[in-house]
Amino acid sequence: MKKKLFALVLSGLMVFSLAACSSSSSEGTTEEAATGEETTAAEGEEGATAEGEVPDVGVLIYKYDDTYISTVRNALEAALDGKANVSMQDGKGDQATQNDQLDVMISKGVDVLCVNMVDAQAASGVVEKAKAADIPVVFFNREPATDVIASYDKAIFIGTNAADAGKMQGDIITDLFTEHPEYDLNGDGKVQYVMFQGEPDNPEAIARTQYSVEQAVANGTEMEQVGETQVCNWDTEQAQKAMEAILAANEGKIELVIANNDGMAIGCIAALSNIGYNVEGGDKFIPVIGVDATDAAKDAIAKGTMSATVLQDGEAMGQAVAAVALNAASGVDFLEGTELTLDDTGVAVRIPYAPYTK
Ligand code: CA
Q: Which of 14, 94, 101, 126 is the most exposed place for a label (fewest CB within 10 A)?
């Protein structure tokens, strides 16, 4: 009840402020304010904002404390600067928190929602609510099921092709061990590797884990896993602790570290450097590869303490989300005036990856 009253007051305020900016609509302001909620809903139905006004864009982020997502967020904000009123919320890695933030944005009557799901499997709830309020949704980065996106004609997904990042890691592995036979420490012709996975159920993480090894094997590189797959939630510190433990149990038996992201790769390098490996200018080295091409990873690659990463172009992602959101807010086709294309699902746009080495 309190929430509803808040929304009513808020939408009333919005009408007041809109009216204040537009001299032609000053008549009837009081009446509109009294029925603010309905007015906002009616505007939403038209799917377009009046000329000279900028749209309200609601952005839900899975968590601010993620290096790659910060790049996307900054690029998105920069691309919308002056073109939209942006309200952005930090889901802090909690889907219940994000659901509450979604409710507030819908009650505010934003013109378009940009949603980076905490839990991609909860996307059907987002679609349901957005559909009921007739607000377009641009999902990005964390991918909902295709049938969920396809169930709403005003929903789209902007992401990457998760398998591609893994395949590029696989090609990097083959190149590394072909160019550096000395990386095969025990000389058995196989690569003894440790795998660091982002999350257990995240499709992006699963695909990177699977395709990196499959691709290396397809290239003719023999792969042998050491220990179990380490699930470290994309997190540097968790990966460092796990790597310390696995090194203590297997020192000298690990020839490669594959991480689903650079955050975890950097944690692994910290653990290695604690025991004298992968130190700048040092002579003991185990190749570590990640995904994202964060500044920390690029720095480590330049210093020679990390081998390679796969560039996930966060700026291109942020710019694409902004362009699609602005189109959606003005009621034109999602991809109008952009160079983006839909993939074969018909509901998703893919921003390509690229390998990044020294
Ligand atoms: Ca070996």
A: 94
